[in-house]
Design goal:
Blueprint (H helix, E strand, L loop, with lengths): L5 E5 L11 H9 L1 H10 L1 H10 L1 H16 L4 H19 L2 H12 L3 E9 H11 L3 E5 L1 E3 L5 E5 L7 H13 L12 E6 L5 H6 L2 E4 L22
Parallel strand pairs: 1-2, 1-6, 2-3, 6-7
Antiparallel strand pairs: 4-5
């Protein structure tokens, strides 16, 4: 009998790369001072989001996007996002996580990036890394090819992150609903937004740097894995 396929799902910010990418990307698009002004106005909502997470975080992030991205032409955002994606990987890609991603690629596994960050640059970063797919937050486009600033669908975090991965696997014929062989899932994350994905995986891996202080401390750590 043929072996079940293996899938490796990697979070982006803090897992494949050091730190976050959303604010640097917004600065690359709009400039430092506009981003700082809008962030200051939304400070109460952003503070609640940082403390509570969940729906509060989704809503605060969408407010930030709406104020900074609403009305921008998609073509311009895509062009500048391509430059940003390349520069961000060059500066912030984590060598240890890249080695693990490349290990999966050498095994012939289906490698996917699953991220709450905007698809418009995470997809380009994924292409540069040679992955098989990218699942990320989509931004809505209104009339005239202009961004509304809102989400298309939901923010790709928590339960939505896992649901979107399942959809990707089904569309690529890697997941069936007839009780047949299902793929073996490895999942790599670093924050509470990755908990649902790691809990659903056959092999959930904590790629964060907080060790016993991190939210994913119940999972094996990336630095415990052997990559040969």
């Amino acid at each position: 009998m043929p072996e079940s396929p293996t899938v490796a799902a990697f979070d982006f910010d803090g897992t494949l790369t050091n730190g976050g990418s959303v604010y640097p990307w917004l600065v690359a698009l709009r400039g430092r001072w506009p981003v700082l002004r809008v962030t200051a106005r939304l400070a109460p909502a952003l503070l609640r989001a940082a403390l509570a997470g969940g729906t509060a975080a989704d809503e605060a992030k969408e407010q930030l996007f709406t104020r900074l991205l609403g009305g921008l032409p998609v073509a311009e955002v895509d062009a500048r996002s391509a430059v940003f994606a390349h520069q961000h990987l060059a500066r912030h890609l984590r060598p240890e996580t890249r080695r693990r991603l490349e290990w999966h690629q050498r095994q012939g596994h289906h490698v996917v990036i699953v991220s709450a960050s905007p698809e418009c640059y995470v997809r380009l970063a994924g292409e540069e890394l040679g992955v098989d797919g990218v699942v990320a937050t989509r931004l809505a486009v209104g009339g005239g090819g202009l961004l509304t600033g809102g989400y298309e669908g939901q923010n790709c975090r928590g339960a939505e992150k896992y649901a979107r991965l399942v959809g990707h696997l089904r569309s690529n014929g890697l997941l069936t609903s007839n009780g047949g062989d299902q793929p073996v899932l490895w999942a790599y994350g670093n924050s509470r937004g990755d908990l649902r994905l790691l809990n659903a995986a056959d092999h959930g891996i904590d790629a964060g740097k907080l060790g016993r202080l991190g939210r994913l401390r119940a999972f094996p750590r990336l630095d415990q894995l052997r990559t040969t």
